[in-house]
Design a protein that fits this description.
The complex is a heterodimer. Chain A is an alpha/beta fold. Chain A is built from twelve helices and 14 strands. The longest helix of chain A is centred in the C-terminal third of the chain and has 22 residues. The chains are: A alpha/beta, B alpha+beta.
Chain lengths: 552, 733
């Protein structure tokens, strides 16, 4: 950049920008107002970031792939995951297909062998003849069997980065291998809705900081770290003093300022805070108000469990069984995650917000990841219980958002190595699993819900099926699990295809809008066609990809 | 020192003229963008000029005569839009008594003096925020002298230990305990509070900033050591906490001692990190094995290049990570005899704690000794390691980096490193690690990446990461060989040259001086461009109102104070302003990229509300509602005596003069903003002082001066100051 260019950019444009903070709707948004239905069709989305890169091969297990737990790796003389591979249940026929997912229900009688919530120690048969779930994911079964769950394996993006920070950035800014894009997919989605300038609450996160997926310069998305403390004091701290302080703060938000690099950002977020304080104060985020319970007795027990385990007392059947940790449904470090998840759910349910999300961390299991208990299994329990609970919450307690109008999607920056490492963990790799749940999601077709899909498992099956497994999974030590550098599971589906399909076919964007939200879509028909929509060979790295899948 | 120069711009038809040379960092003069005429009202709009001391509107009706200052113009709000969400206002300069049918207008801006601007930058960047006393001092000795002081901390006598009683309490815990067990009694909460207290009160402010920079650059995670790692050996959470805290403390102490050497190099700092047990554990080198068919753990190998030295994808690829990871196999930790803490070849201690009934000489909890870095040849990978195979320094770097030779390569620009293998593994293998870091510490990629990080710390966020991919937008930003560099890229290039051309290479203080000597640092480029991190926000809040009223600089004399724990947490898990405003846990970052230096991560509605609550609580007198033991965002030992400060610094005749009181606090809270840009804040402050808690009129000059909590005068002044500090400008750095 030239010196003149720098001056121009920093200050001349700054004039226009300084004035534009005073305008309600950014210019770019006005043209979009006529298009699409985002925010107008009642559909909402909840995202959950699984930060650290989930070991997907131990989540959605290709248990019928001999390489997973049978084949001997000649280099080591052992199977690839001697300490952490999940074993088959000798009594189950994993090759049976077209059936529902098993649900290893527990018993409420403490003397029974299946008393503990996670008594089952083998791969849970999903019923598609090939894949199994980690036993800690058992609470996915009811969601799966209702046809409300799609598990998409082998998801990644071209020229995969193995850096957490870069890869998380790409998943959030929707532009793989491009770190210069500083705004996020859902931010752009909200801008396209035309509502970001008028509704103070469109995209919301509940975690310690606003994630890139919601960041952008023309409108503020809202992040709360603790909704129960979301109010200001005054000096003195009484009604009069508080009002006086609030007014002074509000007024100051309009004072003109000389342009500086971060003043626009501060203005937008200060205004968003002023605009949203009243909205949040009307919602009960408190622990006392956390009375949401299952709509029936849970998991064979004699009570209905709390949907959001934010304390040990509300964690599964713990309290009902005299404080028995065997009846936990999630690990005891999960309480802050579920506090935030509950808040995100409340936001979607009680306000006009369209997208909400939160995160949970700890997935970077290089070391001692655990087989049936430990770090990785504990994290799986969180995922499964979260999806189970959200389905019940948005069905039983639905207000401004109903399960049929909601899609929950997980994000994780990559998968992990097929082989375990010497520290009994796994390292960074390529493709992983996306969990997608919702009333409108086209999972396992069953008498109560015809979805047209023979199973809810995508990209992880024994035979090629145009709807759920268009690109076959080759088994063995030279198969799909080692297709990249003889080491890593190769992608067949781009994460952008999944998010793109949800943004268009669920949230209601037009294809035109989607091309702007996820620029890779605009490559369709060109020589660098990334085939995000329609299957083909990626113009970036010549990998065969599925394009969008029939998940909604 | 440049004198203040007025800038003039004539409206529309008339030509623009400047009477001086524009520097890269001077913004262009403001342009009048709107003029509205309605009856006898004329309204002008123009964007404010940074650090404007004064705006004067000149007007006239005859183009052949000079325009004259028109004092009838005032800043007034107008409505931009109104909706159910509220009304949006803008501001314009308005005159309501214009009688002439036509008029010529221009705006003259008087900027603050360049020294004033520079001084504000210095206090914002080289310290944790201005204090009333430091503002006075920098105005007295001048910013250049102040910078020179801070860049030579070895010449400063540090007296921070006298500023709070907690120093003695905490520092007494940082000792090697006798009595058979080498332990420290300092918990992580103690270490954090100590770090915060030094940030608040140290004279060697810039040194403290650099120590925090290093802590956040060479990231280690206390909780991984105390929890995941030590859980294997101990059942004593308190002991585990303390030893893990000791690792962090030792890193800090070693970096401090290194930095107090004027020729400290980046390699010196890198070496301390590489040898730190905290780092060896954090990035899993501790359990990495490379002997036989074992595959080394790649975590440290990746991050030492990606995050600590070269920058992401800047000169290395996955293969380099895999091969390099083998170098570190054998670097681990163990409990050794106290006499062996500096001997990495020592074997584990077998000395049983006297009095122990357990006779095991291998159960760590049964033995006395110190956990230290040790090297174990038995797990080391002895193969030849060829790293950066056939790689050449990219052309964008230009000479000397593309024309000099590296390692033992004869071809210029080739930076391949070959570490020969061994037939047997012995203690010599330890040198592979040192060989590697000795080389990459001064590779062009490292010089570039670390310079960029330092520039981001001291100038602004506008220093993107470099790229070697010509199709990447950032490639041209740092194309040094291509020339035509932006001021930012030029500065990075200048830092790299300082790094490269002095001997030894990479002298940190010299590189820092290149930055502080730069135009960007001394003028608008660094002025108010950044946003404070949670640590900087909380500390700067205390400092802004902190003066030692009797000049003693000892505990009890300060008008703004904290016990440290209130800010960083009384225990490792407790809620405090640092956890609430973005979960900034000192010494305990879970991801090795460190807490972000740039703004977007920290600025969201939730984090802002928490920052404001802390500040408001801080300004409320201790014991009053909002700052009691139960409703105490700021904490019971963190507070200020705002009226005490006012009394110490201003004459008694002005204490009930609303304008004078407002002016004083504006001058210490916003020293670099310029009075011209603060006029609305000033009127808001005066208005605040002249209204009561129910916003009814209550003349400030009728109140009885008092610093007793709860008295109307005390509340009123605290409220006004709190109001000014909750505004957006105070988030800036």
């Amino acid at each position: 950049m030239t010196r003149r260019g720098f001056l121009d950019r920093s200050f001349k444009i700054g004039l226009g920008v300084a004035l534009s903070t005073l305008v309600d709707i950014p210019l770019v948004v006005k043209r979009a107002l006529a298009e699409g239905n985002i925010g107008l069709n009642g559909k909402k989305l909840l995202f959950i970031w699984l930060r650290g890169a989930n070991d997907s091969l131990n989540s959605l297990i290709p248990i019928q792939d001999s390489a997973y737990n049978t084949d001997i790796n000649p280099a080591t003389g052992t199977v690839i995951r001697p300490n952490i591979a999940i074993d088959k249940d000798g009594a189950a026929d994993y090759s049976a297909s077209g059936i529902a997912c098993d649900f290893p229900q527990s018993s409420s009688a403490s003397a029974d062998p299946n008393y503990a919530t996670f008594w089952y120690q083998n791969g849970i048969r999903t019923g598609n003849g090939f894949a199994a779930l980690h036993p800690s994911l058992k609470f996915l079964a009811p969601v799966y069997n209702a046809g409300d769950l799609a598990l998409i394996h082998r998801v990644a993006y071209p020229r995969q980065s193995r850096s957490h920070f870069d890869s998380q950035n790409y998943w959030e800014n929707g532009n793989p291998n491009n770190n210069t894009v500083q705004d996020g997919i859902f931010y752009r989605t909200m801008i396209q809705s035309g509502l970001a300038g008028t509704n103070p609450l469109t995209g919301v996160s509940v975690q310690s900081a606003l994630p890139l997926i919601l960041r952008g310069s023309a409108a503020a998305m809202t992040n709360l770290s603790d909704p129960t403390r979301y109010n200001l004091l005054g000096i003195p701290n009484n009604t009069g003093g508080n009002n006086k302080a609030d007014k002074a703060l509000l007024d100051a938000g309009f004072y003109p300022f000389a342009s500086k690099q971060n003043r626009e950002l501060l203005s937008l977020q200060y205004k968003n805070m002023s605009d949203t304080l009243a909205i949040f104060s009307a919602i009960d985020f408190s622990e006392l108000g956390n009375t949401f319970v299952d709509d029936a007795n849970t998991d064979g027990d004699s009570v209905a469990y709390n949907l959001f385990p934010t304390t040990s007392a509300k964690n599964g059947g713990y309290a009902a069984h005299g404080n028995d940790a065997n009846k936990y449904v999630v690990d005891t470090n999960a309480y802050s995650f579920f506090t935030n998840l509950k808040a995100a759910a409340l936001v979607l349910n009680k306000t006009s917000a369209i997208v909400a999300g939160t995160e949970t961390t700890g997935f970077d299991t290089h070391n001692n990841q655990g087989k049936l208990t430990g770090t990785h299994p504990n994290l799986q329990r969180r995922i499964a219980w979260a999806l189970y609970a959200l389905r019940k919450y948005f069905t039983k307690y639905s207000d401004k958002c109903n399960w049929n109008n909601l899609v929950v999607v997980t994000l994780s920056e990559f998968g992990r190595t097929s082989k375990q490492n010497t520290s009994l963990g796994t390292d960074h790799a390529e493709a992983g699993v996306m969990f997608v749940a919702g009333g409108a999601v086209k999972g396992f077709s069953n008498p109560n819900k015809i979805t047209g899909n023979p199973s809810g498992i995508f990209n992880c099956a024994g035979s090629v099926d145009p709807s759920v497994n268009p690109i076959g999974w080759t088994t063995g030590l030279n198969g799909s699990m080692f297709a990249i550098q003889s080491n890593y599971l190769r992608r067949t589906t781009d994460y952008r295809s999944m998010l793109g399909k949800l943004i268009r076919d669920h949230l209601g964007a037009t294809q035109n809008q989607l091309n702007w939200i996820i620029p890779g879509y605009a490559s369709e028909g060109t020589s660098k066609d990334e085939h995000l929509r329609v299957a083909g060979t990626s113009g970036v790295d010549s990998t065969q990809v599925t394009g969008e899948l029939n998940i909604i | 020192m440049r004198r203040a120069r007025p800038l003039s711009l004539l409206l529309a038809v008339l030509t623009t003229s400047f009477s001086f040379q524009i520097l890269a960092s001077d913004p262009p003069a403001p342009v009048i963008t709107n003029i509205n005429v309605s009856g006898s009202t004329r309204a002008l709009r123009f964007a404010p000029y940074p650090a404007a001391s004064n705006y004067t509107i000149l007007s006239g009706t005859n183009a052949s005569l000079p325009l004259t200052p028109n004092p009838n113009f005032f800043l007034a709000p107008f409505i931009i839009s109104a909706s159910t969400n509220g009304t949006n206002y803008g501001y314009e300069w308005r005159v309501t008594n214009s009688t002439s049918p036509n008029g010529l207008y221009s705006v003259r801006v008087t900027p603050v003096s360049s020294n004033t601007l520079f001084a504000a930058n210095v206090l914002n960047r080289l310290t944790y925020g201005p204090t009333p006393d430091e503002i006075e001092r920098i105005n007295m000795i001048g910013p250049d002298a102040y910078v020179a002081e801070q860049l030579a901390p070895w010449n400063i006598t540090e007296d921070v230990a006298g500023t709070h009683a907690n120093f003695a309490t905490i520092e007494n815990k940082f000792v090697e305990a006798t009595n058979f067990v080498w332990r420290t009694n300092a918990a992580i909460a103690d270490l954090r509070a100590w770090h915060v207290l030094r940030a608040i009160g140290a004279k060697r402010q810039f040194l403290e900033i650099l120590l925090q920079f290093l802590e956040n650059h060479f990231v280690t995670q206390w909780s991984k050591t105390s929890g995941s790692y030590f859980d294997t050996y101990y059942d004593d959470g308190t002991y585990q906490d303390a030893v893990a805290a000791q690792f962090e403390y030792l890193e800090n102490e070693k970096w401090l001692n290194a930095l107090l050497n004027p020729s400290c190099t980046f390699y010196d700092l890198l070496k301390i990190s590489a040898e730190s047990p905290a780092m060896i554990i954090y990035l899993d080198t501790v359990s990495s094995k490379g002997n036989g068919s074992n595959i080394a753990n790649e975590n440290y190998a990746r991050e030492i290049m990606e995050l600590f030295c070269m920058g992401v994808d800047n000169g290395y690829d996955q293969n380099d990570i895999t091969v390099q990871s083998r170098i570190w196999t054998g670097w681990t930790v163990d409990k050794v005899d106290l006499s062996n803490v500096f001997n990495p070849f020592a074997s584990a201690t077998t000395n049983i704690i006297p009095g122990s009934t357990n006779t095991s000489t291998t159960t760590k909890s049964n033995l006395y000794g110190a956990w230290s870095f040790v090297y174990k040849p038995s797990v080391h990978n002895t193969s030849t390691k060829t790293i950066f195979t056939n790689k050449f320094v990219p052309s964008r770097f230009g000479p000397p980096w593309t024309t000099k030779t590296y390692f033992t390569n004869a071809v210029p620009g080739k930076y391949q490193i070959v570490i020969p293998g061994h037939t047997t593994s012995d203690t010599n293998g330890i040198f592979e690690g040192y060989q590697f870091i000795t080389n990459i510490a001064n590779y062009p990629f490292t010089e570039e990446y670390i310079s960029i990080k330092l520039c981001k710390l001291l100038i602004s966020d506008n220093f993107p990461n470099p790229s070697n991919d010509p199709s990447n937008a950032n490639y041209n930003v740092y194309n040094y060989a291509g020339g035509n560099l932006s001021p930012e890229a030029s500065l990075v290039y200048g830092c790299m040259q300082t790094w490269e051309t002095n001997s030894p290479k990479g002298q940190i203080w010299k590189v820092l001086k290149t930055i502080t000597d730069s135009d960007l640092f001394r003028s608008h480029g660094a002025s108010q461009q950044k946003v404070k991190t949670p640590l900087e926000y909380a500390v700067s809040t205390v400092r802004a109102l902190r003066s030692s009223t009797n000049g003693s600089n000892v505990a009890g004399s300060f008008t703004g104070y904290s016990d440290g724990y209130n800010i960083s947490g009384s225990s490792s898990g407790s809620a405090c302003v640092m956890t609430r405003t973005g979960n900034m846990l000192l010494f305990d970052r879970d991801a090795p990229d460190g807490y972000p230096e740039t703004a977007p991560y920290w600025v969201s509605a939730g984090s802002i509300s928490e920052r404001l609550r802390f500040l408001q609580s801080f300004c409320i007198a201790i014991g009053q509602a909002g700052h009691t033991s139960t409703t105490n965002d700021a904490g019971s030992n963190t507070g200020c005596d705002i009226v005490g400060l006012l009394k110490a610094k201003t004459p008694a005749s002005s204490w009930t003069n609303a304008a004078a009181v407002a002016d004083y606090f504006l001058s210490i809270i916003y020293p670099g903003e310029g009075a011209g840009n603060l006029s609305l804040y000033r009127s808001a402050a005066v208005n605040f002082l002249n209204t009561d808690d129910n916003s009814a009129s209550s003349p400030f000059n009728l109140l009885t001066v008092s610093s007793t909590p709860g008295q109307p005068y005390d509340n009123r002044v605290r409220g006004m100051v709190g109001s000014l500090m909750t505004m957006q400008r105070f988030q800036e750095q």
